[in-house]
Amino acid sequence: IIAIGHINEAIDEGNPEKTLETLLLPTAKLQDVTPVNAKHYQDVLHYAKVQKCKESQDESVLLWLDEIQQGISDANNDIKEVAILAVGTSMINKSLEKGDSQPILMILQSKFGLRVLPECAETYFRNLSEAKNLKTREDSNESPWIKLIMKNMYEYYYNVETEKGTCVPPEGVVPKTSWLTGEEIQSIVGQVTADYNREQLWLANENLIVQLQARARGFLVRKKYQERKAFLQNQEPSAIKIQAFWKGFKQRKSYVDRLKVLQDNVAAIVKIQSWVKMWLARRAYRKRLQYFKDHNAEIVKIQAFLRANKAREDYRTLIGAENPPLVVLRKFAYLLDQSDLDFQEELEVTRLREEVVTKIRSNQQLEKDLNLMDIKIGLLVKNRITLQDVVLHSKKLNKKSKSQLEEMVMVDKQGIKGLSKERRKKLEAYQHLFYLLQTNPTYLAKLIFQMPQNKSTKFMDTVIFTLYNYASNQREEYLLLKLFKTALEEEINSKVDQIQDIVTGNPTVIKMVVSFNRGARGQNTLRQLLAPVVKEIMDDKSLIINTSPVDVYKSWVNQLEMQTGEASKLPYDVTTEQALTHTEVVSKLESSIQSLRAVTDKVLSSIFSSLNMMPYGMRYIAKVLKSSLHEKFPDATEDELLKIVGNLLYYRYMNPAIVAPDGFDIIDMTAGGQIHSDQRRNLGCVAKVLQHAASNKLFEGESEHLSSMNTYLSQTYQKFRYTKPWQIPAHFGQDTVFLSSSHSTTVKITYSVRYLLHIREKLVLNKLLLLEHQDAIATEPNDLLNELLEGLGPVPDVESFLGEGAVDPNDPNKGSTLNQLAKTEISLSLTSKYDLREGEDQDLKSLMIKTKRLIVDVIRTQPGDTLLEILETPATAQQESEHLKLVEKRAVLDSKTPEKMKHSESIFEDGQLPVEQKKRKIQRNLRTLEQAGLVSPETKYQEIINEIAK
Fold it and tell me: 501-723 domain in CATH 3.40.1190.20?
């Protein structure tokens, strides 16, 4: 009894070792106690005691000796059974791993005690293998222990390597999970056996089952059919209606689906259409080509004529440069050997011009008398019409007289050009007004800034550009640039408060200049300037420039995933700072920066080497912009001014064409073609660097990762300063160029300049000037504009320009008709209101010609870069000798010249002078011409060089 008490106390404490000691007490006289099963003894006995307590509802109850012996026997049996099951489980899994199916049946029968069928041996093996494969993992790191559960309560661990088991969990054990457990093996084998038995049962009764199924299904189908048939017969009207709705729904759905297909495939449809259009165009082209082949002889003649004209035009261009250098002029000076007759003719032309001026003055008076006579004839015609209305029964006029009378009456309805003194006077007033506005840009420059900005652009397009004929010739181009210059100076003085306003704002004049130079006139220039280098960048398929660290990081991660075939463990969305922590990203970024520098150098080289191709107007306006800003902001540094000029020339003019070359027709694009995103990003990066370099703006803040290019930006900015694209000959500001000298202006006024202007444009300009902004434009009371506007009278309407009867007053569409007629063009001969100046100085012209002859003689014998340099450099003895030979040769030619064609005595004497005396005389003559305003030392007397080149 004492031993039983000790055993129960040890069981309650839950200590397997102490429980084993009490079980081994001699006084207990217990049998078959195995020490290795101590843990299981403890578990079984403790469970038995707990159950006994529950049954007796007494917690102090004890296990007696027979109950303890029964628990030991049950525990030993459990260990034996589970050991056999563990061995069987190990053998099954090992056979599955080896792929050996032979011992499977024997193991299942001997170890598991299962009733298995030899016919299912392969099925047992296949299903067990599939189940094991599902549990097997490649990266599993498992111990040799497997865990089994006894009676769904107690754990048992079996080492498959040592083939020993224990109820105590080994330290740090990780049981195998890739092996099938005994329960899983029994379940799979039992399922296979059951499936096989059921299959054999069905096979044995297959014929009966088929017949039963067939009869049952036939009965069900016939019953269902009869029910459905009866239902449809009873619901025939509803069925018809449902079918109608259903068919309508299907048709609408088909239509919507087809429409969606077409909408989703617009690109393909457009492509098909483009192919058809291309085929039609190709067919038309082939027809046209065949036509050319059929008329080959005529085409050859036309081409020969055009090529001859082109050759002559090229030669005129060669010798007709705007400011030919003296070095070039000296190379062709020999051509003047036979131009003695030209000098004589020029003198004669000068005399004739004086005579023409006199004749023109006389003709003007005659024209006034003729206009007065026309008006009187018109009044006489009116009187005849009135007389004819009063005397109805006078003698009948013949048809010819009636026709002449109707034509004379219609003259009164010709509007502003009608035969009336008032209309003729108004026509002349408009001609004087437009001439004044065209030649004096101050009025239009002020007018632009008196109007709202949204109206000034339309005003420029509809009136001002038309007034200057879109700079179609040299005179209009000069006058339009002069307007731009005046308007820009006006805008800077009145609108710009800070120097940065030019960059941050959108100046009207800058916008007009850039738009004008990007138009049809400047488009070819921009294409020649940028097309080669832009095309080279786009054609380089290996060039990939990406300066965004985040984009480079994402591209790198995608590349890693493609190489490994596995999802990267790196985060996809990162900040710029996080992306730059990866060496691969920094390396790729540095590679892009190196490529960006190389490509930018190519673009800069192309731009700097082709500055002479940049439109002259852009460079001139850049110069005016720099000088005007310097005048208003004298404290501004040179760098600040250069940033503004760079913003104009590079950011506003060139950058958009580099970023979007397809939009500015810089490159040729195929039909439906577009620039690849990589190409556009490359061009955008280059444009961004050029923009920063032109304005000397460094990479800071968000672009700190590009700070390694700051030194490069500073160096590029210095290159920009060195090239000085704004430095051009300052001849636009002088009145001696582009037909602006005193004599050329007089001649231009004499011959008039004819323009076609819309009636609406005349109305708009007149209304704006007269009613709205006259006080702001012409501030002085005696201003010429005030006088001309006063002569125009009140603002006219369209009918006053077209004449009475131009529009039927009863016409219901009178308004639209007037709008259409407002687009009618009227030809104006722009003339000055003031008479030609008296007494043109013929001596100055003769002096100019004599000076040109002396200069030709001097430059032929003495070289130099400029005329001033030649005049200040003494001639050598060899040069004097060459000049003496030239004089002697000319004397021989003069002796053979007919008397009427010989030079005057003064010209002959000047030709005999030595070189140094000729140079002194040239200097005296140049001073006289300079006082007359015909030449200027600031231009190194380029004006007279231009005259010689002509």
Answer: no
450 Cβ contact list (under 8 Å, min separation 6) = 772, 773, 776, 777
Compute the distance between CA of residue 699 and CA of residue 131 in angstroms, rounded to an integer.
64
Write down the pLDDT at residue 138: 55
Helices then strands, each counted (H, E), the chain: 42, 5
* pLDDT at 209 > cutoff 50: yes
Helix spans in 205-265 (H): 206-234, 236-264
Q: What is the biggest distance separating any 2 CA atoms in the chain, rounded to whole angstroms? A: 177
Q: What residues contact 713, with CB distance under 8 A and at least 6 apart?
A: 689, 692, 693, 696, 697, 698, 699
Which residue do the tokens 């006058």 mark? Answer: 479
From residue 333, give the alpha-carbon distance in Å to each of 53, 326, 917, 945.
138, 10, 20, 11
**Position 909, amino acid:** E
Query: From CA 374, how far away is CA 411, in angstroms rounded?
Result: 11
Residue spans per domain, the chain: 1-186, 343-409, 428-495+741-804+818-830, 501-723, 841-949
If DSSP states are collapsed to H, E and C, what string results for 539-583? HCCCCCCCCCHHHHHHHHHHHHHHHHCCCCCCCCCCCHHHHCCCH
Tell me if 335 sits within 8 A of 342, measured CB to CB.
Answer: no
B/e letters for 115-144, b = 16+ CB within 10 Å, e = fewer, are ebeeebbebbbebbbebbeeeeeeeeeeee
Distance between CA atoms of residues 521 and 152, nearest Å: 97
Rounded to whole angstroms, the Cα distance separating 645 from 623 reads 8
For 467, counting Cβ atoms within 10 Å of its Cβ (0-12 exposed, 13-18 middle, 19+ buried), the class is buried
**Structure tokens given for 918:** 């000729």
786 vs 429: CA distance, rounded Å: 12
Are residues 543 and 572 in contact, defined by beta-carbon separation less than 8 angstroms? no
pLDDT value, residue 294: 93
Structure-token pair, residue 810: 């009863």
337-346 average pLDDT score = 54
- CA distances 735 to 407, 482, 934, 936, 943, Å, are 47, 11, 9, 11, 11
What pLDDT shows up at residue 216? 94
Band of pLDDT at residue 522, cut at 50, 70 and 90 = low
Average pLDDT, the chain: 74
Phi, psi of 31 (to 5 degrees): -115, 160
Alpha-helical segments (H) within 780-932: 784-792, 798-802, 814-821, 842-861, 867-872, 877-896, 905-911, 915-931
Both tokens assigned to 256: 């919507």
Give the closest residue to 572 by CA, choosing from 551, 590, 547. Answer: 551
Six-digit token string for 696? 């000397």
The answer to whether the beta carbons of residues 90 and 132 sit under 8 Å apart is no
Residue 655 has pLDDT above 60, yes or no: yes
Sign of CA dihedral 229, 231, 232, 236: positive
* pTM confidence score: 0.45
- How open is the CA angle 563-568-570, to the nearest 5 degrees? 130
> How far is the C-alpha of 719 from the C-alpha of 906, rounded, in Å?
54
Region 586-598 average pLDDT: 84
